[in-house]
Amino acid sequence: MYGIILAGGSGSRLWPLSRELYPKQLLNIQNKDSLLQETYKRIATIIPASNIVSVTNMKHHSNVKYQLSSFAKNPVVLSEPAAKNTAPAIAVSVKYILDKKNKSTDDTVLVVPSDHKIKDLKSFKKSVEQAEELAKEGYLVTFGVKPEYAETGFGYIKVENNALKNGYKVKKFVEKPDAYSAQKYINNEDIYWNSGIFLFKLSVFMDELRKYSPDIYSIISRFDFTKKDEIPYTEFDRLPYISIDYALMEKSKNLAMSELKSDWLDVGSWKSIYDVSKKDIDNNVKIGHILDKDSKNSLMFSSSKLVATIGLEDTIVVETEDAILACKKDRVQEVKQVFETLKQQHDNTQLVHKTVYRPWGFYTVLAQGDGFLTKMIHVNPAQKLSVQSHNHRSEHWVVLSGMAKVVLEGKEHILSPGHSVDIAVKAVHSLQNPYKEDLKIIEIQKGDILIEEDIVRYEDMYGRV
User: Fold this and answer.
1) Residue 134: which of 110, 118, 103, 104 has the closest Cα?
2) What's the CA gap between 395 and 93, in Å, rounded?
3) For residue 18, what are the CA distances in angstroms to 10, 196, 352, 391?
4) Between these two residues, 29 and 71, which has the higher pLDDT value?
5) Which long-range contacts (CB under 8 A, 24 or more apart) does 154-158 make?
6) Tens-place pLDDT, residues 31-56
7) DSSP three-state, residue 407
């Protein structure tokens, strides 16, 4: 069996904690591991690490690869040059497996999103094994979950009454319903939540793709991963933006559903965080520095400041350094609209956090204006930034605490607190902390283009080149 982890997406419904450049799958909310890392560890109990392929947007590639490097020596991470939704992501990953790793087109592939929580690994493994029997019979298998409450944020699957050996034939997919319809579905034995998890044989997927999405099939058939892992931008950009449900699953006559009998949670909204979190005597979830009086059935989340609440009921309050969300618990699906509005307004509170974590430490944006950007950079002991240059900005570094080793155009400079250095446009440089104490510096950027993408990497200890 092979595995495909879908690690793209922006996590817009978990704003302001989730941002476009650091989405929910990379976050560790009340856990040591991120959602992505939990997903990888879960399917690695079923599938050899060498058979697992993750696919993500190029903006997240370095972070995804770094996080997975904790569990695999050389994790395979495919980098999509543009966001095209799940159908192209899965199709490209299947083609990669066929070109690079596969010996038989009758091998099966398990496709999983990277934002699920599943604790009962024994039941999960058993459900996958049962679904694999259906897949070997030639079905595209989707996993369904018995509804536990009226959820308007999920799609649903309606199955036929006649059961197969390990599942059901799918009658139809049901779009995300209104509250009235969702309530009716709870007690309907023929309706399940659509988990977004799939299992199929490589050959069956490619045959069905050729039949029902010939545009995708014809383009990915020209991809050649035998020599390199890179996805060609020009060809990939021609693929339609479409989900796997619309492109294939809803059209196929060869579709079956197998029930996922383990616990399952799609961490897609703040309500789902509330549902999975430990609650106090008043049914509140408090994460971070919270001072509350007389609130009930609410979630309060603080990342950096004291959040004081009084008399809230069924409310979500989320604080980050640069944004606050407050909404009723039954309207959390509308958070996505806030995210999209900020995106249209080119507001950076949708794009990136003020504090951004990196493999070597973190940085915090202190001030930003026309032509300048000021950061506080924190480098952990024995860590170093990549050897890099910038095409559009110069930088000025001032050491606040600790000792800095700066490599500038091949020459080493050791800077103590109060000392500074200038980095010219296109100068090759690296900031390093080979010492035992934390290093803190102030970085002032000057230029017409001040974005993280203006980094040309030459060497990197975290594999981001």
Assistant:
1) 110
2) 39
3) 7, 20, 9, 29
4) 71
5) 154/193, 154/194, 154/266, 155/193, 155/194, 155/245, 156/185, 156/191, 156/192, 156/193, 156/194, 157/191, 157/192, 157/193, 157/194, 157/257, 158/190, 158/191
6) 778 899 999 999 999 999 999 999 99
7) strand
Distances (CA, A) of 460 to 274, 383, 395, 429, 430: 39, 11, 20, 12, 10
Q: How many residues would you count in the chain?
A: 465
> Could you give phi then psi for residue 43, rounded to 5 degrees?
-80, -15
Question: Taking a C-beta distance cutoff of 8 angstroms, is the pair 115, 268 a contact?
Answer: yes
Rounded to the nearest angstrom, the gap between the alpha carbon of residue 303 and the centroid of all alpha carbons in its chain is: 20
Residue 457 pLDDT > 70: yes
pLDDT tens figures, 169-220: 988 888 888 888 888 888 788 889 999 999 999 999 999 999 999 999 999 9
Map tokens 């599938």 to a residue: 47
At 103, the pLDDT band (50, 70, 90 cuts) reads low
> By three-state DSSP, how is residue 36 classified?
helix
- Between CA 46 and CA 112 the distance in angstroms is 13
Instruction: Calculate the dihedral angle through the C-alpha atoms of 110, 116, 122, 127, rounding to the nearest 10 degrees.
Output: -50
CA angle 248, 160, 91 (to 5 degrees): 15
Peptide bond into 16 cis (omega under 30): yes
pLDDT greater than 80 at residue 301 = yes
The letter for the amino acid at 274 is Y
